[in-house]
Amino acid sequence: MAHPDAATSHSAPMSPEEFRTGTLRGSEGFFCVGQNQAGRWWLLDEEGRPFFCRAVHGVRAAAVPVDESVGGRAASAGPYAPDEHPSTRLRKWGFNALGVGGDGAAQADGFAFIASVDFCRMSGVIQAPGVRLPDVFAPEWPARAAARAFEVCAPAMMNRALIGWVADDLPGWAPPAASGGARPSLLQSCLSLEPNFAAYHAAWEFVLALHGGRIDTLARAWGVAVTNKEVVREWTRVEQAIATRGYGRDDAQWSREFARRYFTGTAAAIRAADPNHLVLGCRFGRRVDESVRAECVYPAVDVALLDTSAVPALAAGATGPVLAGDFGWAGAGAVDAPARGRGGRKLTTVEWMLRQGRAALERMARHPAVVGYVWRQWLDEPGEQPPFARGLVHVNGTEAREHTELLTAFNARAESLRRAPVRPIKESSVFSG
Questions:
Q1: How far is Cα 363 from Cα 187, in angstroms, rounded to an integer?
Q2: pTM exceeds 0.70, yes or no
Q3: Left (φ > 0), alpha (ψ -120 to 50) or beta: where does 26 sit?
Q4: Non-local CB neighbours of 56 within 8 Å, separated by 6+ positions
Q5: Which of 175, 181, 297, 357 is the most buried (most CB within 10 A)?
Q6: What is the C-alpha R_g of the chain?
Q7: How many CB atoms lie within 10 A of CB 163?
Q8: How far, in Å, CA of 252 to CA of 232, rounded?
Q9: How far is Cα 383 from Cα 397, in angstroms, rounded to an integer?
Q10: Phi, psi values for residue 77, rounded to 5°
Q11: Which domains does the chain carry?
Q12: pLDDT tens, 82-104?
């Protein structure tokens, strides 16, 4: 049986003996993941063949048609020309999967895909600036989560093209207090909820238990003038963040407990409704604190879908597989690319950005824990302007060649890079030089 590190692009299925004992996750006949004897993690497709995921979030069929009367593109929506259909473009650019957030238009064309359960669409969700999460402390949370998962996941249980489930597409975890952000962190937001939220009572019980049950002791530990609960609520109302070191320690502990309940609860609900597919955590969409990422791990999560800014935390001690999500050139900014090109010519900002991106992609493909990546978005966001827009398709329907040409070249050799001998991983970032 062919070993994935020496396989062709049409790899033969792998045998269980080629994996390290106890590392296989998933059900036979569906997408699985395991760590081979060389120490490299691999996704395996439904036929058991090595699969390096190359996906895009938000793929959709809506487009802008050609309007010859104005010599270009009209502003009204319409169908793509045949050579501009998402499926055609994805294949031309070397992608083999769909991320979340799209309209499902390309699923019928044989692409593997990731799906979202969207637990945040249930009732009882915490909504605050930077925060959008289910109230995982509510007594009814397990039953609500189970009902939501059964509604969404059970119908897809036998779909062999489905890679796995994310619990939510872009929930809000709030910036940690340690980041010095201007907005209140998760703990402060929960301390400021209305009393009908279980998370409000749980948060106050949590912090008071850490400080002898007294608010005056808590205030001294935090270094802020908290005299009663309403003071914290008023600060949150005007978005005055508590950012002291003492508070930050409590915020990190609370965030980790919240994340533990979220990831274990959503995973249990998903697996009860669909035991065949992998659990991928959630689509963070941006960097979150280590206290949250620390709970986005096995056994709650089979493959962690991490924003690329979190991938630098991976080192030789990585304990599980990672799918690098929301990849973009901005996320590759840590690469110290040279300021000059051939002949000593100074690189433009765009050239430097793309060189950084190419280096980041190659390092990512070689990392033994990374089983693929997901480009952050299909279409440019409103107001974005090329060449710094982030979509693969511009708002007028044209191809973003500043991205697609480099990605096409990388995707064509991604599996060869992946099969290269495993190198020792330093404590530095997968994106660093």
A1: 36
A2: yes
A3: left
A4: 90, 95, 98, 99, 374, 375, 377, 378, 392
A5: 357
A6: 23
A7: 29
A8: 18
A9: 15
A10: -75, 155
A11: 4-176+257-419 (3.20.20.80)
A12: 568 899 999 999 999 999 998 88
